[in-house]
User: Fold this.
Amino acid sequence: MSQIDHPNFGKMDENRVIIFDTTLRDGEQSPGFSMNIEEKLRMAEMLAELGVDVLEAGFPAASPGDFEAVSRIAKAAKGPVITGLARAAANDITRAGEAIRAAERKRIHTFISTSPLHMKYKLRMEPETVLEHVTSSVTLARQFTDDVEWSAEDGTRTDIEFLCRCVEAAIKAGATTINIPDTVGYAVPEDMARIFSTVRARVPGAERVIFSSHCHNDLGLAVANTLAALHAGARQVECTINGIGERAGNAALEEVVMAIRTRPDANPYHHGIETTRILRTSKLLATVTGFDVQPNKAIVGRNAFAHESGIHQDGMLKNAATYEIMTPESVGWQKTALVMGKHSGRAAFRDKLNALGYGDLGDNALNDAFRRFKDLADRKKLVYDDDIVALVDDEVVRGHQRIKFISLEVWAGSKDKPRALLELEVDGTPATADARGDGPVDAAFNAVRAIFPHTAELRLFSVGAVTEGTDAQARCTVRLEEEGKSVDGQGADTDTIVAAVRAYVHALNKLVTKRARTAPASLSA
Assistant:
Protein backbone atom coordinates (compact mmCIF):
# COMPACT_ATOMS: atom_id res chain seq x y z
CA MET A 1 0.00 0.00 0.00
CA SER A 2 2.83 2.42 0.81
CA GLN A 3 4.15 2.06 -2.79
CA ILE A 4 1.10 3.74 -4.35
CA ASP A 5 1.77 7.14 -5.89
CA HIS A 6 -1.70 8.44 -6.63
CA PRO A 7 -2.16 11.52 -8.86
CA ASN A 8 -4.49 13.20 -6.37
CA PHE A 9 -3.25 11.74 -3.09
CA GLY A 10 0.48 11.26 -3.62
CA LYS A 11 2.28 8.59 -1.61
CA MET A 12 -0.42 6.76 0.30
CA ASP A 13 -0.07 6.02 4.01
CA GLU A 14 -0.87 2.32 4.16
CA ASN A 15 -3.59 2.85 6.78
CA ARG A 16 -5.12 6.02 5.33
CA VAL A 17 -8.72 5.48 4.18
CA ILE A 18 -10.07 7.68 1.40
CA ILE A 19 -13.69 8.67 2.02
CA PHE A 20 -15.55 8.78 -1.30
CA ASP A 21 -18.97 10.39 -0.80
CA THR A 22 -21.67 9.61 -3.34
CA THR A 23 -24.62 11.31 -1.60
CA LEU A 24 -25.10 13.64 -4.58
CA ARG A 25 -25.01 10.81 -7.12
CA ASP A 26 -26.02 7.37 -5.85
CA GLY A 27 -27.82 8.89 -2.87
CA GLU A 28 -29.81 11.28 -5.03
CA GLN A 29 -30.91 8.40 -7.26
CA SER A 30 -33.05 6.94 -4.48
CA PRO A 31 -36.77 7.56 -5.07
CA GLY A 32 -37.94 10.91 -3.73
CA PHE A 33 -34.47 12.19 -2.85
CA SER A 34 -33.86 14.37 -5.91
CA MET A 35 -32.20 17.74 -5.28
CA ASN A 36 -32.13 20.87 -7.37
CA ILE A 37 -28.86 22.54 -8.31
CA GLU A 38 -28.84 25.01 -5.44
CA GLU A 39 -29.51 22.23 -2.94
CA LYS A 40 -26.69 20.17 -4.41
CA LEU A 41 -24.34 23.14 -4.08
CA ARG A 42 -25.30 23.56 -0.41
CA MET A 43 -24.67 19.88 0.24
CA ALA A 44 -21.37 19.94 -1.67
CA GLU A 45 -20.16 22.83 0.47
CA MET A 46 -21.16 20.99 3.65
CA LEU A 47 -19.49 17.77 2.49
CA ALA A 48 -16.30 19.68 1.78
CA GLU A 49 -16.39 21.12 5.30
CA LEU A 50 -16.99 17.61 6.64
CA GLY A 51 -13.69 16.59 5.05
CA VAL A 52 -14.67 14.03 2.43
CA ASP A 53 -11.76 13.18 0.15
CA VAL A 54 -13.72 12.49 -3.02
CA LEU A 55 -17.09 13.99 -3.87
CA GLU A 56 -19.08 12.26 -6.59
CA ALA A 57 -21.07 15.24 -7.80
CA GLY A 58 -23.37 13.46 -10.23
CA PHE A 59 -23.87 11.67 -13.53
CA PRO A 60 -23.25 14.41 -16.16
CA ALA A 61 -24.64 12.45 -19.12
CA ALA A 62 -27.92 11.70 -17.31
CA SER A 63 -29.49 15.11 -17.99
CA PRO A 64 -28.61 18.75 -18.71
CA GLY A 65 -29.45 19.53 -15.07
CA ASP A 66 -27.01 16.91 -13.80
CA PHE A 67 -24.31 18.24 -16.13
CA GLU A 68 -24.82 21.78 -14.86
CA ALA A 69 -24.82 20.66 -11.23
CA VAL A 70 -21.52 18.78 -11.63
CA SER A 71 -20.01 21.74 -13.52
CA ARG A 72 -21.00 24.26 -10.85
CA ILE A 73 -19.80 22.04 -8.03
CA ALA A 74 -16.48 21.56 -9.87
CA LYS A 75 -16.05 25.34 -9.94
CA ALA A 76 -17.25 26.06 -6.41
CA ALA A 77 -16.18 23.16 -4.18
CA LYS A 78 -12.74 23.44 -2.66
CA GLY A 79 -10.88 20.55 -1.09
CA PRO A 80 -12.35 17.25 -2.31
CA VAL A 81 -11.59 15.56 -5.61
CA ILE A 82 -14.66 16.21 -7.77
CA THR A 83 -15.89 13.16 -9.64
CA GLY A 84 -18.35 12.60 -12.45
CA LEU A 85 -19.82 9.17 -13.17
CA ALA A 86 -19.80 7.75 -16.71
CA ARG A 87 -20.82 4.52 -18.35
CA ALA A 88 -18.29 2.82 -20.63
CA ALA A 89 -19.45 4.95 -23.55
CA ALA A 90 -17.64 7.74 -25.36
CA ASN A 91 -20.43 10.32 -24.92
CA ASP A 92 -20.74 9.64 -21.19
CA ILE A 93 -17.01 9.95 -20.63
CA THR A 94 -16.72 13.11 -22.73
CA ARG A 95 -19.59 14.77 -20.86
CA ALA A 96 -18.03 13.83 -17.53
CA GLY A 97 -14.68 15.23 -18.63
CA GLU A 98 -16.28 18.51 -19.67
CA ALA A 99 -18.32 18.76 -16.45
CA ILE A 100 -15.33 18.37 -14.10
CA ARG A 101 -12.97 20.49 -16.17
CA ALA A 102 -12.92 23.45 -13.75
CA ALA A 103 -12.23 21.39 -10.63
CA GLU A 104 -8.92 21.91 -8.82
CA ARG A 105 -8.72 18.13 -8.35
CA LYS A 106 -10.79 15.92 -10.61
CA ARG A 107 -11.63 12.32 -11.43
CA ILE A 108 -13.74 10.40 -13.92
CA HIS A 109 -15.49 7.33 -12.54
CA THR A 110 -16.40 4.91 -15.31
CA PHE A 111 -18.07 1.54 -14.97
CA ILE A 112 -19.42 -1.49 -16.80
CA SER A 113 -21.24 -4.61 -15.63
CA THR A 114 -19.14 -7.76 -15.31
CA SER A 115 -21.43 -10.42 -13.79
CA PRO A 116 -22.83 -13.16 -16.08
CA LEU A 117 -26.37 -12.04 -15.26
CA HIS A 118 -25.75 -8.40 -16.18
CA MET A 119 -23.67 -9.17 -19.27
CA LYS A 120 -26.35 -11.48 -20.66
CA TYR A 121 -29.55 -9.61 -19.84
CA LYS A 122 -28.53 -5.98 -19.34
CA LEU A 123 -25.61 -5.41 -21.70
CA ARG A 124 -26.26 -8.28 -24.10
CA MET A 125 -22.50 -8.51 -24.53
CA GLU A 126 -20.01 -11.34 -24.59
CA PRO A 127 -17.25 -11.23 -21.95
CA GLU A 128 -14.58 -10.39 -24.51
CA THR A 129 -16.58 -7.38 -25.68
CA VAL A 130 -16.90 -6.21 -22.10
CA LEU A 131 -13.13 -6.48 -21.71
CA GLU A 132 -12.68 -4.30 -24.80
CA HIS A 133 -15.00 -1.68 -23.30
CA VAL A 134 -13.03 -1.70 -20.06
CA THR A 135 -9.86 -0.81 -21.93
CA SER A 136 -11.39 1.75 -24.27
CA SER A 137 -13.37 3.57 -21.56
CA VAL A 138 -10.42 3.95 -19.19
CA THR A 139 -8.14 4.99 -22.06
CA LEU A 140 -10.57 7.72 -23.11
CA ALA A 141 -11.09 8.92 -19.56
CA ARG A 142 -7.33 9.34 -19.14
CA GLN A 143 -7.45 11.97 -21.87
CA PHE A 144 -9.40 14.23 -19.47
CA THR A 145 -7.66 13.49 -16.17
CA ASP A 146 -4.85 11.46 -14.67
CA ASP A 147 -7.21 10.21 -11.96
CA VAL A 148 -9.55 7.55 -13.33
CA GLU A 149 -11.63 5.14 -11.30
CA TRP A 150 -12.97 1.99 -12.88
CA SER A 151 -15.85 -0.02 -11.40
CA ALA A 152 -17.03 -3.56 -12.04
CA GLU A 153 -20.79 -3.21 -11.67
CA ASP A 154 -22.22 -6.23 -9.84
CA GLY A 155 -18.64 -7.15 -9.02
CA THR A 156 -19.48 -9.42 -6.09
CA ARG A 157 -21.55 -11.68 -8.38
CA THR A 158 -18.84 -11.78 -11.04
CA ASP A 159 -16.77 -14.88 -11.80
CA ILE A 160 -13.52 -14.27 -9.96
CA GLU A 161 -11.32 -15.22 -12.93
CA PHE A 162 -13.13 -12.83 -15.23
CA LEU A 163 -13.09 -10.12 -12.57
CA CYS A 164 -9.31 -10.43 -12.34
CA ARG A 165 -9.00 -10.10 -16.13
CA CYS A 166 -11.16 -6.94 -16.11
CA VAL A 167 -9.21 -5.36 -13.26
CA GLU A 168 -5.93 -6.13 -15.03
CA ALA A 169 -7.22 -4.51 -18.22
CA ALA A 170 -8.35 -1.40 -16.34
CA ILE A 171 -4.98 -1.01 -14.61
CA LYS A 172 -3.09 -1.46 -17.90
CA ALA A 173 -5.29 1.23 -19.50
CA GLY A 174 -4.43 3.71 -16.74
CA ALA A 175 -7.00 3.35 -13.95
CA THR A 176 -5.69 4.62 -10.61
CA THR A 177 -8.59 3.35 -8.46
CA ILE A 178 -10.34 -0.01 -8.83
CA ASN A 179 -13.81 -0.31 -7.34
CA ILE A 180 -15.44 -3.69 -6.74
CA PRO A 181 -19.02 -2.82 -5.78
CA ASP A 182 -21.59 -4.99 -4.08
CA THR A 183 -24.16 -3.39 -6.36
CA VAL A 184 -27.21 -5.32 -5.15
CA GLY A 185 -26.21 -5.88 -1.52
CA TYR A 186 -25.75 -9.62 -2.09
CA ALA A 187 -22.40 -10.22 -0.43
CA VAL A 188 -21.56 -11.13 3.16
CA PRO A 189 -18.32 -10.02 4.85
CA GLU A 190 -16.58 -13.32 4.06
CA ASP A 191 -17.29 -12.76 0.35
CA MET A 192 -15.79 -9.29 0.45
CA ALA A 193 -12.65 -10.49 2.18
CA ARG A 194 -12.20 -13.31 -0.33
CA ILE A 195 -12.83 -11.19 -3.43
CA PHE A 196 -10.55 -8.30 -2.50
CA SER A 197 -7.78 -10.57 -1.23
CA THR A 198 -7.91 -12.71 -4.38
CA VAL A 199 -7.91 -9.83 -6.84
CA ARG A 200 -5.11 -8.00 -5.07
CA ALA A 201 -3.01 -11.17 -4.96
CA ARG A 202 -3.56 -12.31 -8.56
CA VAL A 203 -3.69 -9.17 -10.68
CA PRO A 204 -0.39 -7.76 -11.97
CA GLY A 205 -0.01 -4.10 -11.03
CA ALA A 206 -2.58 -4.30 -8.20
CA GLU A 207 0.00 -2.86 -5.82
CA ARG A 208 0.03 0.40 -7.84
CA VAL A 209 -3.67 1.26 -7.44
CA ILE A 210 -6.15 1.99 -4.70
CA PHE A 211 -8.92 -0.56 -4.24
CA SER A 212 -12.36 0.73 -3.36
CA SER A 213 -15.50 -0.72 -1.81
CA HIS A 214 -19.03 0.38 -2.72
CA CYS A 215 -21.64 -1.58 -0.75
CA HIS A 216 -25.42 -1.50 -0.83
CA ASN A 217 -27.55 -2.35 2.17
CA ASP A 218 -30.16 -4.78 0.83
CA LEU A 219 -29.32 -7.32 3.55
CA GLY A 220 -28.33 -4.72 6.14
CA LEU A 221 -24.64 -5.61 5.68
CA ALA A 222 -23.29 -2.55 3.85
CA VAL A 223 -21.12 -1.24 6.68
CA ALA A 224 -19.96 -4.72 7.74
CA ASN A 225 -19.03 -5.50 4.13
CA THR A 226 -17.20 -2.19 3.80
CA LEU A 227 -15.10 -2.92 6.88
CA ALA A 228 -14.37 -6.42 5.58
CA ALA A 229 -13.10 -4.89 2.33
CA LEU A 230 -10.80 -2.60 4.35
CA HIS A 231 -9.42 -5.59 6.22
CA ALA A 232 -8.68 -7.21 2.84
CA GLY A 233 -6.74 -4.22 1.55
CA ALA A 234 -9.26 -1.73 0.16
CA ARG A 235 -8.35 1.84 1.09
CA GLN A 236 -11.26 3.77 -0.36
CA VAL A 237 -14.84 3.44 0.88
CA GLU A 238 -17.80 4.74 -1.09
CA CYS A 239 -20.65 5.83 1.14
CA THR A 240 -23.44 8.35 1.65
CA ILE A 241 -24.72 10.59 4.43
CA ASN A 242 -27.56 8.89 6.34
CA GLY A 243 -26.96 5.80 4.18
CA ILE A 244 -29.28 7.03 1.42
CA GLY A 245 -29.11 5.42 -2.00
CA GLU A 246 -30.76 3.01 -4.41
CA ARG A 247 -33.27 0.60 -2.82
CA ALA A 248 -32.13 0.01 0.80
CA GLY A 249 -29.33 2.54 0.44
CA ASN A 250 -25.55 2.58 0.69
CA ALA A 251 -23.05 2.15 3.47
CA ALA A 252 -23.59 5.12 5.78
CA LEU A 253 -20.60 7.44 5.94
CA GLU A 254 -21.20 8.27 9.59
CA GLU A 255 -21.28 4.59 10.58
CA VAL A 256 -18.09 3.68 8.70
CA VAL A 257 -16.00 6.57 10.01
CA MET A 258 -17.19 6.14 13.60
CA ALA A 259 -16.56 2.39 13.46
CA ILE A 260 -12.98 3.22 12.52
CA ARG A 261 -12.65 5.87 15.21
CA THR A 262 -14.37 3.90 17.97
CA ARG A 263 -12.70 0.54 17.33
CA PRO A 264 -9.07 1.24 16.34
CA ASP A 265 -8.17 -2.16 17.75
CA ALA A 266 -10.34 -3.87 15.12
CA ASN A 267 -10.04 -1.18 12.42
CA PRO A 268 -6.50 0.28 12.61
CA TYR A 269 -7.09 2.96 9.99
CA HIS A 270 -7.53 6.71 9.90
CA HIS A 271 -9.42 9.23 7.78
CA GLY A 272 -9.81 12.96 7.34
CA ILE A 273 -13.44 13.38 8.39
CA GLU A 274 -14.20 16.09 10.94
CA THR A 275 -16.62 13.94 12.90
CA THR A 276 -18.08 16.80 14.96
CA ARG A 277 -19.73 18.01 11.73
CA ILE A 278 -21.52 14.72 11.05
CA LEU A 279 -24.83 15.60 12.71
CA ARG A 280 -24.99 19.00 11.07
CA THR A 281 -24.43 17.43 7.65
CA SER A 282 -27.04 14.77 8.35
CA LYS A 283 -29.61 17.35 9.35
CA LEU A 284 -28.94 19.47 6.26
CA LEU A 285 -29.51 16.45 4.02
CA ALA A 286 -32.74 15.62 5.83
CA THR A 287 -33.90 19.22 5.34
CA VAL A 288 -32.93 19.32 1.66
CA THR A 289 -34.55 16.00 0.78
CA GLY A 290 -37.50 16.25 3.14
CA PHE A 291 -36.78 12.80 4.57
CA ASP A 292 -36.11 12.63 8.30
CA VAL A 293 -33.65 10.14 9.72
CA GLN A 294 -35.26 7.19 11.49
CA PRO A 295 -35.11 7.72 15.28
CA ASN A 296 -33.01 4.62 15.97
CA LYS A 297 -30.50 5.30 13.16
CA ALA A 298 -26.93 4.76 14.37
CA ILE A 299 -24.92 7.93 15.09
CA VAL A 300 -27.42 10.50 13.77
CA GLY A 301 -30.85 9.21 14.85
CA ARG A 302 -32.43 11.21 17.66
CA ASN A 303 -32.34 8.13 19.91
CA ALA A 304 -28.68 7.30 19.21
CA PHE A 305 -27.61 8.96 22.47
CA ALA A 306 -30.93 8.82 24.31
CA HIS A 307 -31.61 6.56 27.28
CA GLU A 308 -35.02 5.83 28.81
CA SER A 309 -34.47 2.52 30.61
CA GLY A 310 -34.04 3.09 34.32
CA ILE A 311 -31.16 0.60 34.47
CA HIS A 312 -29.35 2.34 31.62
CA GLN A 313 -29.99 5.80 33.04
CA ASP A 314 -28.61 4.77 36.41
CA GLY A 315 -25.46 3.46 34.72
CA MET A 316 -25.11 6.60 32.62
CA LEU A 317 -25.31 8.82 35.68
CA LYS A 318 -22.51 6.85 37.31
CA ASN A 319 -20.29 6.54 34.25
CA ALA A 320 -21.33 7.35 30.67
CA ALA A 321 -19.08 4.60 29.32
CA THR A 322 -21.43 2.00 30.81
CA TYR A 323 -23.85 2.49 27.92
CA GLU A 324 -22.16 4.79 25.39
CA ILE A 325 -19.21 3.69 23.26
CA MET A 326 -18.61 7.20 21.91
CA THR A 327 -19.45 10.66 23.16
CA PRO A 328 -22.39 12.50 21.59
CA GLU A 329 -20.15 15.56 21.21
CA SER A 330 -17.79 13.58 18.96
CA VAL A 331 -20.40 13.51 16.18
CA GLY A 332 -22.05 16.87 16.80
CA TRP A 333 -24.73 16.23 19.41
CA GLN A 334 -24.81 18.62 22.36
CA LYS A 335 -25.12 16.00 25.07
CA THR A 336 -26.60 12.69 26.09
CA ALA A 337 -30.36 12.74 26.52
CA LEU A 338 -31.87 10.93 29.46
CA VAL A 339 -35.32 10.58 27.95
CA MET A 340 -37.97 10.65 30.61
CA GLY A 341 -40.60 8.01 29.99
CA LYS A 342 -42.28 5.05 31.59
CA HIS A 343 -39.03 3.06 31.68
CA SER A 344 -37.09 5.76 33.54
CA GLY A 345 -35.94 5.03 37.07
CA ARG A 346 -35.79 7.04 40.27
CA ALA A 347 -32.10 7.92 39.83
CA ALA A 348 -32.69 9.52 36.44
CA PHE A 349 -35.75 11.32 37.77
CA ARG A 350 -33.77 12.73 40.70
CA ASP A 351 -31.00 13.82 38.31
CA LYS A 352 -33.56 15.52 36.08
CA LEU A 353 -35.04 17.34 39.10
CA ASN A 354 -31.56 18.55 40.07
CA ALA A 355 -31.02 19.83 36.54
CA LEU A 356 -34.37 21.62 36.71
CA GLY A 357 -33.50 23.30 40.01
CA TYR A 358 -35.35 21.05 42.47
CA GLY A 359 -32.27 19.82 44.31
CA ASP A 360 -33.75 20.47 47.76
CA LEU A 361 -36.84 18.31 47.25
CA GLY A 362 -37.36 16.06 50.29
CA ASP A 363 -37.75 12.29 50.09
CA ASN A 364 -41.51 12.34 50.59
CA ALA A 365 -42.04 15.03 47.98
CA LEU A 366 -39.67 13.18 45.64
CA ASN A 367 -41.58 9.94 46.08
CA ASP A 368 -44.90 11.63 45.46
CA ALA A 369 -43.55 13.46 42.41
CA PHE A 370 -42.01 10.24 41.06
CA ARG A 371 -45.31 8.42 41.48
CA ARG A 372 -47.13 11.12 39.54
CA PHE A 373 -44.38 11.11 36.93
CA LYS A 374 -44.87 7.38 36.38
CA ASP A 375 -48.61 7.88 36.10
CA LEU A 376 -48.04 10.62 33.53
CA ALA A 377 -45.45 8.53 31.62
CA ASP A 378 -48.01 5.73 31.22
CA ARG A 379 -50.21 8.20 29.37
CA LYS A 380 -47.56 10.05 27.35
CA LYS A 381 -44.90 8.65 25.02
CA LEU A 382 -42.41 11.32 26.03
CA VAL A 383 -42.36 13.45 29.16
CA TYR A 384 -40.80 16.86 28.56
CA ASP A 385 -39.01 19.05 31.07
CA ASP A 386 -42.00 21.40 31.21
CA ASP A 387 -44.23 18.43 32.04
CA ILE A 388 -41.99 17.54 34.97
CA VAL A 389 -41.88 21.13 36.22
CA ALA A 390 -45.65 21.25 36.10
CA LEU A 391 -46.22 18.03 38.00
CA VAL A 392 -43.50 18.74 40.61
CA ASP A 393 -44.80 22.23 41.25
CA ASP A 394 -48.25 20.73 41.49
CA GLU A 395 -46.99 18.18 44.04
CA VAL A 396 -44.83 20.54 46.10
CA VAL A 397 -47.61 23.01 46.75
CA ARG A 398 -49.85 20.15 47.84
CA GLY A 399 -47.40 18.60 50.24
CA HIS A 400 -49.19 19.44 53.50
CA GLN A 401 -52.68 20.40 52.43
CA ARG A 402 -56.01 19.42 53.90
CA ILE A 403 -57.78 18.65 50.64
CA LYS A 404 -56.26 16.15 48.22
CA PHE A 405 -57.43 15.04 44.81
CA ILE A 406 -58.00 11.27 44.50
CA SER A 407 -59.97 10.52 41.32
CA LEU A 408 -62.48 11.89 38.86
CA GLU A 409 -64.88 10.41 36.33
CA VAL A 410 -66.82 12.62 33.93
CA TRP A 411 -69.67 11.92 31.53
CA ALA A 412 -70.36 14.59 28.93
CA GLY A 413 -71.97 14.98 25.53
CA SER A 414 -74.63 16.80 23.54
CA LYS A 415 -77.66 14.92 24.87
CA ASP A 416 -77.51 14.68 28.66
CA LYS A 417 -76.38 17.21 31.23
CA PRO A 418 -72.69 16.57 32.10
CA ARG A 419 -72.03 14.60 35.25
CA ALA A 420 -68.94 14.32 37.48
CA LEU A 421 -68.13 11.67 40.06
CA LEU A 422 -65.35 13.05 42.26
CA GLU A 423 -63.35 11.62 45.13
CA LEU A 424 -61.30 13.85 47.41
CA GLU A 425 -59.53 13.28 50.71
CA VAL A 426 -60.34 15.88 53.37
CA ASP A 427 -58.21 15.86 56.50
CA GLY A 428 -57.29 12.27 55.71
CA THR A 429 -60.84 11.05 55.19
CA PRO A 430 -62.08 10.01 51.73
CA ALA A 431 -65.23 11.73 50.47
CA THR A 432 -67.17 11.41 47.23
CA ALA A 433 -69.76 13.49 45.39
CA ASP A 434 -71.85 12.99 42.27
CA ALA A 435 -72.80 16.30 40.64
CA ARG A 436 -74.11 17.75 37.41
CA GLY A 437 -73.46 21.06 35.71
CA ASP A 438 -73.72 23.14 32.56
CA GLY A 439 -70.51 21.57 31.28
CA PRO A 440 -68.01 18.95 32.47
CA VAL A 441 -65.88 21.57 34.27
CA ASP A 442 -68.93 23.09 35.98
CA ALA A 443 -70.10 19.61 37.03
CA ALA A 444 -66.67 18.81 38.47
CA PHE A 445 -66.49 22.13 40.37
CA ASN A 446 -70.01 21.51 41.75
CA ALA A 447 -68.75 18.16 43.03
CA VAL A 448 -65.89 19.94 44.85
CA ARG A 449 -68.38 22.28 46.51
CA ALA A 450 -70.54 19.34 47.52
CA ILE A 451 -67.63 17.62 49.27
CA PHE A 452 -66.16 20.79 50.79
CA PRO A 453 -68.85 23.51 51.05
CA HIS A 454 -67.54 27.10 50.91
CA THR A 455 -68.59 30.64 50.00
CA ALA A 456 -65.62 31.57 47.78
CA GLU A 457 -66.51 32.69 44.26
CA LEU A 458 -64.80 31.63 41.05
CA ARG A 459 -63.27 34.73 39.41
CA LEU A 460 -60.98 33.19 36.77
CA PHE A 461 -60.62 29.91 34.94
CA SER A 462 -58.03 29.53 32.17
CA VAL A 463 -56.52 26.60 30.28
CA GLY A 464 -53.23 26.36 28.42
CA ALA A 465 -51.05 23.55 27.00
CA VAL A 466 -47.76 22.81 28.73
CA THR A 467 -46.27 21.11 25.67
CA GLU A 468 -47.30 20.34 22.09
CA GLY A 469 -49.40 17.52 20.71
CA THR A 470 -52.73 15.92 21.44
CA ASP A 471 -51.23 14.18 24.48
CA ALA A 472 -49.91 17.46 25.92
CA GLN A 473 -50.55 18.30 29.54
CA ALA A 474 -53.13 21.00 30.16
CA ARG A 475 -52.20 23.64 32.72
CA CYS A 476 -55.24 25.21 34.37
CA THR A 477 -55.45 28.27 36.56
CA VAL A 478 -58.33 28.94 38.95
CA ARG A 479 -58.82 32.17 40.91
CA LEU A 480 -61.08 32.10 43.96
CA GLU A 481 -62.15 35.19 45.88
CA GLU A 482 -63.50 35.32 49.42
CA GLU A 483 -64.05 38.41 51.55
CA GLY A 484 -62.03 40.58 49.18
CA LYS A 485 -59.04 38.25 49.16
CA SER A 486 -58.16 36.19 46.10
CA VAL A 487 -55.88 33.24 45.52
CA ASP A 488 -54.73 31.45 42.37
CA GLY A 489 -54.43 27.71 42.06
CA GLN A 490 -52.73 25.74 39.30
CA GLY A 491 -53.13 22.18 38.13
CA ALA A 492 -51.63 20.14 35.30
CA ASP A 493 -52.70 16.88 33.72
CA THR A 494 -53.14 15.34 30.29
CA ASP A 495 -56.89 15.37 31.07
CA THR A 496 -58.08 18.97 31.02
CA ILE A 497 -60.96 18.37 33.45
CA VAL A 498 -58.64 16.67 35.95
CA ALA A 499 -56.23 19.60 35.61
CA ALA A 500 -59.11 21.99 36.28
CA VAL A 501 -60.14 20.16 39.47
CA ARG A 502 -56.53 20.03 40.66
CA ALA A 503 -56.30 23.80 40.14
CA TYR A 504 -59.56 24.38 42.01
CA VAL A 505 -58.48 22.21 44.93
CA HIS A 506 -55.11 23.94 44.97
CA ALA A 507 -56.78 27.36 45.24
CA LEU A 508 -59.16 26.08 47.88
CA ASN A 509 -56.26 24.83 49.99
CA LYS A 510 -54.66 28.25 49.79
CA LEU A 511 -57.83 29.83 51.11
CA VAL A 512 -57.93 27.31 53.97
CA THR A 513 -54.35 28.21 54.81
CA LYS A 514 -55.12 31.93 54.76
CA ARG A 515 -58.09 31.46 57.04
CA ALA A 516 -56.04 29.34 59.42
CA ARG A 517 -53.57 32.19 59.93
CA THR A 518 -56.31 34.49 61.22
CA ALA A 519 -58.91 32.13 62.71
CA PRO A 520 -59.06 28.47 63.67
CA ALA A 521 -62.36 27.87 61.94
CA SER A 522 -62.38 26.03 58.63
CA LEU A 523 -63.61 27.66 55.48
CA SER A 524 -67.15 26.38 55.26
CA ALA A 525 -70.63 27.62 54.64
Summary: Residues 308-395 form one domain. The mean pLDDT is 87. The first strand starts at residue 5 and ends at 6. The chain has three domains: 12-289, 308-395, 400-518.
